[in-house]
Each structure stands twice: as C-alpha cells, then as structure tokens.
Specification:
about 70% helix; about 160 residues
C-alpha cells in the first residue's frame, strides 16, 4: 500500500485503495496488518481520501479527452467502476454511450468498456431506463451495419 501522498503505481492500486476505504468495518478484520495500518492512517487523513477520489475523477476526465481511447486506457479506467462516485460513474457511462453512438464504425473498445462498467456497477448507479436506451442504441447500430453490408459486398 502507498503511504499517504505517495504516488500510486496503477489504476488497479487506486481501485483497491478506494475499495478498502469503502469496505464495511466487519470485513476489515481479515486484512493483513500493513493494509489495516494504511487504512487507519488514510481514514484519519481526509486530504488523502479526497486526493484518491480526485485521482479517480481525473482518470475519467483524461479518458474523455483522449480521442483514441485505446483498449489499455479503457481497461485502466473501467477497473475503477465498483468504487466510483455516482457522478463519475454516470460521466463514464455517458462517455461510452456517446462514443458508440458517434463512431462511424462500432467502437469495440468502447463497447467492451461499457459492458464492464455495467457488470460492475454499484447498486443504484444505473437508472431504470439506462439499459433500455443502451439496448436501443446497440440495436440501431447493428441494424445500420446489417443494412450497409449488402451494399459493400455488391460493390466489391
């Protein structure tokens, strides 16, 4: 575990750190001493807790600004799904949906990121109509692709 204000080495380490901070106290007895010490020190340091949350938000913003959004960058961010604040989760969900909606070809990396995000959503973070809207979007995209396929085959 990093010391307070120490640099994290990966998004997975950030996700693990945030998960420890969110874990119910009943599960904390099973932690090894170094993790328990880190947790107690971090819980007392409100600035460190805020810094970790801000790092998660910054990773999402960085991905949103990244025009390429490659598989590695998406994997780095979606591992945070279970520990994100609701507003950050919703931003990430919107980013994936808009990327799929706006891409000329179906963006498989964004689709895989969306799937991971949905699978690891914190209860209450998805609205009732989110999945309906996502399925409508995917259905439209697949129908458009299917309708274009014969045109491309016949001209080649």
């Amino acid at each position: 575990m990093p010391k307070p204000d120490e640099r994290l080495i990966s998004a997975r380490q950030l996700a693990f750190s945030l998960a420890l901070l969110q874990a119910p106290s009943s599960t904390l007895d099973s932690l090894n001493p170094s993790k328990r010490t880190w947790l107690h020190a971090t819980e007392k340091n409100h600035g460190e807790k805020d810094r970790l949350g801000t790092l998660a938000s910054d990773l999402i913003r960085a991905l949103a600004w990244d025009e390429l959004k490659d598989k590695k960058a998406i994997a780095e961010v979606v591992c945070l799904a279970p520990v994100l604040e609701k507003s950050d989760f919703r931003s990430l969900l919107s980013m994936f949906v808009n990327t799929i909606k706006d891409s000329l070809l179906l963006d498989i990396q964004a689709l895989e990121g969306l799937v991971h995000l949905i699978q690891h959503a914190t209860p209450g973070y998805l609205d009732a109509d989110d999945l309906v809207k996502i399925l409508e979007l995917l259905s439209t995209r697949l129908q458009d692709t299917f309708q274009q396929s014969p045109q491309h085959i016949s001209t080649n």
